[in-house]
Design a protein that fits this description.
The protein is mainly beta and about 120 residues long. It is about 10% helix and about 40% strand.
Length: about 120
């Protein structure tokens, strides 16, 4: 008796099971963005990530903080299939906000994003 081959239908069922338990996420930031990160002050900053299950879907980005209510809703662009980008406005040093990106069915966020500068320390020997 021959070995029974898996059908594409079986692969679809496995995919749906993994999706339903949250093993696969559609919308995410690139791995070097995280909660409590520090971004450069006084210049616009690009933040980007992936939308692998719904490439080309409409996304919305918001910066959540009282200081920047005039910049609360930002345009998010699809760079190429599955990759999105948003330009955060220039913020003064010491500004703290949460960045929230919402897709069709998901919302992801970065908490406590601080805008500051790089401190260059030079040691003399």
């Amino acid at each position: 008796m021959g070995k029974k081959e898996e059908t594409p239908l079986m692969e679809v069922h496995i995919f749906l099971i993994l999706l339903s338990v949250g093993c696969l996420t559609s919308l995410r930031f690139h791995s070097y963005y995280g909660d409590g990160m520090v971004l450069q002050r006084d210049v616009p900053v690009n933040v980007w990530g992936y939308d692998e299950l719904l490439p080309g879907a409409s996304l919305e980005c918001q910066m959540l903080d009282g200081q920047i209510s005039s910049h609360s809703s930002l345009e998010t662009k699809a760079v190429r299939d599955g990759v999105w980008s948003v330009e955060l406005p220039a913020m003064p040093a010491g500004s703290v906000c949460d960045v929230e990106v919402s897709g069709t069915e998901e919302v992801i966020s970065l908490s406590g994003v601080l805008f500051g500068g790089c401190l260059a320390v030079f040691w003399t020997v």
